[in-house]
Amino acid sequence: PASPVLLGIETSCDDTAAAVLDGTTLRSNVVSSQHDVHADYGGIVPELASRNHERYIGPVVQHALDEADCAPGDLDGVAVTCGPGLPGALLVGLSFAKSFGYAARCPVVGVNHLEGHLYSTHITGQGPPMPYLSLIVSGGHTQLVHVSDIGSYTVLGQTRDDAAGEAFDKVAQMLDLDYPGGPAVDRRAQQGDPTFHDFPRSRFDDLSFSFSGLKTSVLYFLRDIPEGERDAFVEAHRADICASFQQAVVDVLVDAVRRAALDTGVEHVAVVGGVSANRGLRDALQMLGTEQDLHIHLPDPQFCMDNAAMIAASARMHWPTTSPLTLDINPRLTL
Length: 335
Ligand code: KG4
Ligand code: ZN
Hints:
It comes from Longimonas halophila. By secondary structure, this protein is of the alpha/beta class. The chain has helices at about 35-40, 45-70, 85-105, 115-120, 165-175, 180-190, 210-225, 225-265, 280-290, 310-320; strands spanning about 5-10, 15-20, 25-35, 75-85, 110, 130-135, 140-150, 150-160, 270, 295. The protein has two domains: about 5-120 and about 305-320, ATPase, nucleotide binding domain (Nucleotidyltransferase, domain 5), CATH 3.30.420.40; about 130-300, Nucleotidyltransferase, domain 5 (2-Layer Sandwich). About 45% of the residues lie in helices and about 20% in strands. Bound molecules: 5'-O-[(R)-(carboxyoxy)(hydroxy)phosphoryl]adenosine and zinc ion. Zinc ion binds near residues 113, 117, 138 and 273.
């Protein structure tokens, strides 16, 4: 079938997710987040992630099938993330998908997690017309990609150090905010003054990114406050620091998108990945679109963060191409 019924499975990081995508109709989309498990550590503990995927993958898939009113026999394929990501976490999803596919007598389709994000704007519709530019901004990646066709991607620039989402998470930790930091910083930034402090904006002619200097400059900014006053200062200005830091990230990302759009002459730009949920970034991109006459495509907020619907959508884009049962994980898979 040209519009297959697909079960999507995603376990590359700390979310256990399953979805049923019937052509472009999303029948269910279940995400079981492990944020609480990792919150005490301020980051993801790989061993804990694997154990929790192992524990929840069965119930999460069952829930997705039930909600979609779908029996295993109704499926045309099982789409599963095979990389990049945490090795142990990926193995849980892939092993489950292979067994499930074998029992349900349908093929498995290995999906690149980054391609999944790329197609998070295509889940329930056509998505931007190709060629277009896509900025992938997540906890693990920051990449500007030229999408010329399904499977034909040129990486125009990527981060030299930290990913944008990683910077959000680390700055949130400095400000005693909950993990993951992006949503927490975003929320505080709404009430803060983005001109409170002028944090540095990195800019490279080759369209690469760097966020480690910005992260360090927030650290030094806080360190330079006399110790006895620091807690009260952070308490009083947490929102302002969040807004100022976020503005620096947004300026860097939007500037790169603007230059890349000019260089390539595209008319359509997508921004995907966890950080694309950021309200400051979404607003700034809409403004850029108006100014530069660009069509901006943003995923529905529920598809920005890791989910299995985007994994199924990626498999649908490549359908009827499927993978052999010898399919293996590749923790360092690139686009
Ligand atoms: O795509 P994603 O769920 O997982 C990866 O593939 O990495 O992205 C998670 C990242 C985290 O770093 C999180 O802090 C960030 O996306 N994030 C945000 C927002 N929501 C999630 N960053 C900024 N603003 C947000 N609203
Ligand atoms: Zn992701």
